[in-house]
Amino acid sequence: MSLDLDTVALGTTGLSVSEIAFGTWRFGRETAAGNLETDRETAHRLLDAYEGAGGRFIDTANVYGEGDSEHWIGEWLAKRDREEFVLASKIYFPTRENDPNAGGLNRKHLRRQLDLVLDRLDTEYLDILFVHRWDEQTPLREFLSTLDRFVKSGRVHYLGASTLRPDAWRLARANELARQHGWEPFSITQPRYNLVNREIEGAYMEFCRERGIGIVPWSPLAQGFLTGKYEREDSPPTDSTASDTEGWRDRYLTEENFKTLDVVRAVGEKLGATPAQVALAYHRHHPDITAPIVGARTVDQLEENLQAGTVSLSAEQFDRLEEAEAGPFDNLL
Fold first, then answer.
1. Residues carrying an active site annotation
2. Which CB contacts under 8 angstroms, 24+ apart, belong to 148-151?
3. Which residues contact 328 (CB under 8 A, 6 or more apart)?
4. Could you tell me whether strands 293-294 and 186-190 are parallel, antiparallel, or unpaired per DSSP bridges?
5. What distance in Å separates the CA atoms of residue 296 and residue 290, rounded to the nearest whole number?
6. How far apart are CA 270 and CA 318, in angstroms?
7. pLDDT band (50, 70, 90) for residue 330
8. DSSP H or E run through 161
9. Most distant CA pair in the chain, distance
10. Which residues of 49-65 are buried (b: 16+ CB within 10 A; e: fewer)?
11. DSSP letter for each residue of 68-80
């Protein structure tokens, strides 16, 4: 593929990352129908394609494919220079049944899971460790001090918070406590964000901008809706990520969202780009976004998404996308 992804600064960390990250949540994942979304061989082909496009920012989690995602990445990475890649993983969800301590952000679970994550990835350190959810049961002081020890030990370079509700105060409270104790703060956040899920706009995004916190959004294509593969009155295929998500149809297949998609399609027609490429280009041009995380089932699908790196939006087109929920698009530039 003739593409060389640019690199961008990750907030104020000093780290540079690929402008589009590769998400591996499909690796080893079984659908509700019992089918494997991405097997080991396909996972390695996808990683090959991402690397071939200049991609070096790989996102995973300890629960993706019950550990298979990390294991397959580790196998693939063993044949490459680890130092060339930025690896991010996440910890929070339960990892053993009937064990009350095998989940959340308690010290026991965090320490055990980081050992397993590094072992599966066959690496001595993570570039970014995200807390996969916020833990209301574990005292903030406990998990912040534990995460700080991970950084001081050299096993983790930076800390991030994934899938927080759009409440800036959670980040603010945690980082203020970290400042008071000289602990490592959260310097990256990983919320849901796309042209039809805009909940982080406002205080959350403003806080990240003010504090130099990098935003690496998941679901930039709204679980496939912004690829343009659905039409009004459609239902998702029975064997898809969307069909596995409760309430997906009611959440995404709405007239308001289709009006936004109409704008995305119209911009794409002007640019000779697909809806997915336009939706990702919006993230690339957004001053508050570092790098959207994309995933794919096939190499062709991934290559199409990564070509968003070649799509340039005019200021007028960016503004029209940002205002897509506001009304008509007859005079779209």
1. 64
2. 148/178, 148/181, 148/183, 148/184, 150/110, 150/114, 151/184
3. none
4. unpaired
5. 20
6. 13
7. very low
8. strand 156-162
9. 59
10. bbbebbbbbbbbbbbbb
11. HHHHHHHHHHTTS
Contact 283, 292 (CB under 8 A): yes
Size of the chain in residues: 333
Contacts for 261 with CB less than 8 Å, ≥ 6 apart: 196, 225, 226, 228, 275
pLDDT tens-digit map of 186-244:
999 999 999 999 999 999 999 999 999 999 999 999 999 999 999 987 766 655 566 56
Which residues contact residue 292 at a Cβ distance below 8 angstroms, ignoring those fewer than 6 apart?
Answer: 20, 21, 193, 216, 217, 218, 220, 280, 283, 284
Coil vs helix vs strand at 88:
strand
Q: Report d(CA 93, CA 135) in Å as an integer.
A: 10
- By the 8 A CB rule, do 125 and 153 touch? no
**Which is it for strands 86-91 and 16-18: parallel, antiparallel or unpaired?**
unpaired
What's the whole-model pTM score? Answer: 0.94
CB–CB of 280/20 below 8 Å? yes
d(CA 162, CA 137): 17
- CA gap 272, 262 in Å, rounded: 15
Q: What is the arithmetic mean of pLDDT over 302-325?
A: 96
Strand order in the sheet with 293-294: 214-215, 186-190, 156-162, 126-131, 86-91, 57-59, 21-23, 293-294
The Cα–Cα gap between 71 and 40 comes to 9
Domains, in order of start, for the chain: 7-221+288-296 (3.20.20.100)
